[in-house]
Amino acid sequence: MTPIDPTTLWIVIIGMAVGSFALRFVFIGLVGDRAMPAWLLRHLRYTAVAIIPALVAPLVVWPAATGGSPDMPRLLAALVTGVIGYVTKNVIWAMLAGASTLYALLYLLQG
Amino acid sequence: MAFSTPKSYFRAGFRDGAPFILVAIPFGTLFGVLATEAGLSLIETMTFTFTVFAGAAQFTALQLLQEETPTVIVLASALAVNLRVAMYSASLTPYLGAAPLWQRAVAAYFTVDQSYACSMIRFEQEPQMTVPQRMAYFFGTVTPIAPMWYMATLAGAALGTQIPESWALDFALPIAFIAMAAPMLRTPAHMIAAFVSIVVVLLAGAVPYNLGLIIAGIAGMMAGAHAEVVFERRKEAT
């Protein structure tokens, strides 16, 4: 880890600010209420359930905190979170169950 | 005013969004802590969080900046992680596209996982909602979340390096995202989409610059859309 160059940092911040807004604005702002084709809408229905698991899976299987090697407390915490979230349909219960599992296992296995 | 008649929908949105402050607080704090540990000043950290307002992309950029990644790749990777908000924007468009441009511009800034997830569930459940009611609901969902996110970042930046590693804050992000995604698995097609995206992203682990995420996301969407068509045909056939 080396110190971050301030110029690079500001380029990244400004670039991300402009880019993130553009990504969010492109459809809702520019397409507006023009009709979109059925095949596009059908794909978009699965955006969240495709992207969120893809974002999370590598963090679960190869967590940075353990240097990228699979870790039993984190794997089980993820599993419990998913099962409770699916069964209860309640985000908060799922998070609490997952966090409790993680802390309990970290305490039992490493503490 | 936009919120005068649809006030009850704003309140409903606020209620549905409120639990997510339990997500915004640990994430915001974590970003503040990690940014400070990486050497960012308070002004840099807060400008980052105010202007970009996208947790996962901010964490990605922060990580890559510390690894001396070329600037272009930092930007491309962070925006790739954030590509999903373009897809959220697209899937909100049929519901909110008829609203005034300024409202759509403000809504664009506030399009995040939580406001999107709450809004899509509500808009699908109540197809008779008017556009102002939907806008009111959408803004209701982010009203508790956004200020808590900013304040938590500030608190995290102030705490700096004092949070012990034993708190395992690193895993707040995966737990929150799984908790958000699991209740969305409403149909077999949704399950297939999630399953395919997980398999593809793990197989594409070696693909550089976070492109595996984009490939897996597209694969998952295609699998879900295709499964939907197949299941519908089967239903019609019986």
Any key phrases for this structure?
heterodimer, A: 111 residues, mainly alpha, 5 helices, B: 238 residues, 2 domains, 0% strand
SSE layout and pairings?
The complex is a heterodimer of chains A (111) and B (238).
Chain A: H1 6-30, H2 38-44, H3 47-61, H4 72-88, H5 91-110
Helix pairs in contact in A: 4-5
Chain B: H1 7-17, H2 21-37, H3 42-52, H4 55-66, H5 71-81, H6 83-96, H7 101-109, H8 113-125, H9 131-159, H10 172-181, H11 188-203, H12 211-237
Helix pairs in contact in B: 1-9, 2-4, 2-9, 3-9, 4-5, 6-8, 8-9, 11-12
Characterise the protein shown here.
- The complex is a heterodimer of chains A (111) and B (238).
- Chain A contains five helices and no strands.
- Chain A is mostly helical and 111 residues long.
- Chain A has a domain at 52-110.
- The longest helix of chain A is centred in the first third of the chain and has 25 residues, at 6-30.
- The mean pLDDT of chain A is 88.
- With 238 residues, chain B is mostly helical.
- Chain B contains twelve helices and no strands.
- Chain B starts with 6 loop residues before the first helix and ends with a helix.
- The relative contact order of chain B is 0.16.
- Classes of the chains: A mainly alpha (111), B mainly alpha (238).
- Chains A and B meet through helix 1, helix 2, helix 3, helix 4 and helix 5 of A and helix 3, helix 4, helix 5, helix 6 and helix 7 of B.
